[in-house]
Input
Amino acid sequence: MKGLLSFILKHHFTLIFIILQFISFVLIVTYNHTQKEAFINSSYYTSGILNSKITSISSYFSLLEENSRLIKENTNLRNQFIKDYKNRHVPSKEILDSLYFQNYKILSGRVIQSSVFKTRNFITLDIGRFQGVKKGSGVICDDGVVGIVKNTSENYSVVLPIINSDFKVSCKISGNDYYGSLRWDAKSYTSAILEDIPFHVSVKKGDSLYTTGFSSIFPTGELLGVVDKVEKNPGDNFYKIAVKLSVDFKQVRTVYVVDQLLKAELDSLKVGIDD
Output
């Protein structure tokens, strides 16, 4: 209280001036029609701007909340895809829930860091071991295959994307289901090379490429890209095929980590085969 009184005594002339100015303004607006109308119009204009800004800010945060809800819903739907389940029994008249058991589990995450112009590009996600991410799991998005989880910490993961010179995946061509190997050409983040396709196979520009499901990483039928250019190399029995990747790696924000629940069982069968 003592401080307040001291402030008033120190600035009393300024405070009196402000009070008198306010009283004068109120009297002018109250008893002059023109000024009163101008003040009301200005108030409406200012109020409109403020309401517009408040609405925009509110809509922005509502959009973030809605986007998170849609991502969660999309993740749940992906976990229900029939291709993510394996047949448990010989076909019978049992209902679907008892006839299939889950083969893949889908986890959603966000890209927090990525590179596209290096020879060995990487992507960092905001989910890790604590959220259920495992090393070697496949990573996809709404547009197709992104890559494979290379390393994990408790709350983060590093992904080896298609646009990394160390990445290679088997894929099949739509229409004939003939399969080859897709690798990055290290030239552009939008293109790759399809290898091991012999001349007798029918392949043309516009054909789509999908994962084969041969490995325990990706489900069958995840989009990789489309054939962009087909050439024959003289003296070679295989095509030179340029592929336009389905994923724009500069725009990837939300991804889904694919956990093959039967991977350990599948890998155990391979132990000693190549020895």
